[in-house]
Amino acid sequence: MSFGDAVDLVIGASVLVVAIVALTVRRRDTAVVLFLVFGVLLATLWARLAAPDIALAEAALGAGVTGALLMDTITSSRPREAASSRPWPKRILGWAGGAVAGGAVLVALVAAVRSLSEPQGSLAQSVDEDMGRTGVEHGITAVLLNFRSYDTLLEVAVLAVAALATVSFIQRQSPAPPEPWPGGPPLAVRGLARILTPILLVVAVWLLVAGTTRPGGAFQSGAVIAAVLILLHLGGWTHAVPQGRWRGWGLMVGLIAFIGVGGAGAVVGAGWLVLDPDWAGTIILALEAVLAVAIGIGLATIFVANRTDVRPGGDDT
Amino acid sequence: MILDVVSAALIALGCVFFAAGTVGLLRFADLNTRLHALAKADNVGLGFVVAGLLAQADHPAIAAKLVLIWALALFAAATNGHLLARAETTEGDA
User: Fold this and answer.
1) Which of residues 67-86 of B touch A (CB under 8 A)?
2) pLDDT along chain A (317 residues), means of 10
């Protein structure tokens, strides 16, 4: 067993341990912090598996945006609920049932993976061969935005629908978004927002452009843009995340742009979502830019809508 | 070769500081002292790890990105520490 294998084993074991502890600890804020640690360890694991795009996405979205959502939820002004008080026999039964089911699924998965033949490598090879026609030089971006762009279109649609659903659900309970800080944002947060916003915007644009030749792309850039919008919202610029009239447009702009590109391909090009090789690079970059902004607005809207629910106006205990 | 030794030494020193910060997190009495351990020891450890990696960087852009990562971690840790201590103080008063 080489040193690399030992490191992989340690990271894999710690991912399992952190996941189990995060699910079983009694205090909610401990569970959320352990979930953040889990996200970071998982990103390391993806990097060890030579999948840097997924590692970036996991770190930005899993540990970043989801962590912000969970942190915001548990620090709400609702009274902390007591630790769960189910009787012990039921808990042990639940544990045993979960362990048996998990073990059965694990055995089935291992058997299925081992019964697969050696990968022929033809799929990755055909991606490399046809890369010249796609307009980008990075395999993942070529697959996401050109070869299988229909899947990405559906992912963007899912995000838009999720954001709209969150917003419309929260809307019923309190129409106006309250101030994030009752007494105004503290100087540390205002200062951090001022310092980080230009840096993070440069990082977001860099991730976007880097996606054409190396790990990066629209989703990672969108997560950074979401972080910028959330930071601005918390720093006092509550209009950073679109509210009111502009919110619907902000959430739908990515989907509209994507369908527009596909439709333009159908009308004047070779077909629905088929990109002409001469224009493909430019179209992909422009589309990714719009997608990054749309993803950022969608995620930030979910975050702000979550805050609106837990702090009803005028409830200062 | 000499660069590898320097990198290993610096990264090992950084790990020592991280371990010290973790011991402080586990053993200190209350929130403020724990924040002190995290904000100081962990960031110095990160600085040493980044310094060790700087010796391995083969392009100035990579070195600049590493230093930027350390600076951003410093900002985040400072703001988080301040907000956590502030929340505990206001909670205690109210």
Assistant:
1) 68, 72, 75-76, 78-79, 82-83, 86
2) 86 93 85 91 90 87 83 68 66 85 92 79 74 76 80 87 81 57 77 90 91 84 90 81 76 86 81 77 86 89 72 40
| Cβ of residue B64 closer than 8 Å to a chain A Cβ | no
The predicted structure's pLDDT at residue A309: 54
Nearest CA in chain B to A191: B79
One DSSP character per residue, B48-93 reads HHHHHHHTT--SHHHHHHHHHHHHHHHHHHHHHHHHHHHHHHHHHH
Angstrom distance (rounded) from CA A286 to CA A283: 5
Enter the pTM of the model: 0.81
B47 CA to chain A: closest CA distance, Å?
A: 19
Q: Cβ contact (<8 Å) for A186 and B86?
A: yes
Q: How far is B29 from chain A (nearest CA, A)?
A: 18
In this prediction, residue A38 carries a pLDDT of: 93
- At A78 the pLDDT is 58
CA distance B94 to chain A (A): 10
ipTM over 0.85: no
